[in-house]
Amino acid sequence: xxxxxxxxxxxxxxxxxxxxxxxxxxxxxxxxxxxxxxxxxxxxxxxxxxxxxxxxxxxxxxxxxxxxxxxxxxxxxxxxxxxxxxxxxxxxxxxxxxxxxxxxxxxxxxxxxxxxxxxxxxxxxxxxxxxxxxxxxxxxxxxxxxxxx
Length: 149
Hints:
Largest sheet: 4 strands, mixed
Helix content: 25-40%
Radius of gyration: 16 Å
CATH class: Alpha Beta
CATH topology: Macrophage Migration Inhibitory Factor
Order of helices and strands: EHHEEEEHEEEH
Strand content: 25-35%
Number of strands: 8
Mean pLDDT: 90
Strand order of the largest sheet: 2-1-5-6
Number of domains: 1
CATH architecture: 2-Layer Sandwich
């Protein structure tokens, strides 16, 4: 049950590129969580937001840049990722952004921030969702983290 928030410079991507970025990042997060991509429950729990910052409102080193970097924040329940899967996710997001946005000369084209919510802190519609319940809804065996057939 990941939550993805991409902050981008206004007009950096056209709608087709934006859709590709969000779809590919969403699937990369599901893959890192070991959820089956063709599982409707898993797909329904990936919420992603693409937010454009107005031109001239992103600064790096106190300087306003013509071509500003992207910020990608991924929040997951505690325990959904581990050291190996976090590394896989960061590498995948880096490749996706390079493919769609392109590399920036001499600097980063994006930052990726991974956040975890403590067990019992993921909630919606007035109820708390524990990791095991979220994983079951996503087609992941809670005890092993392996995809359920």
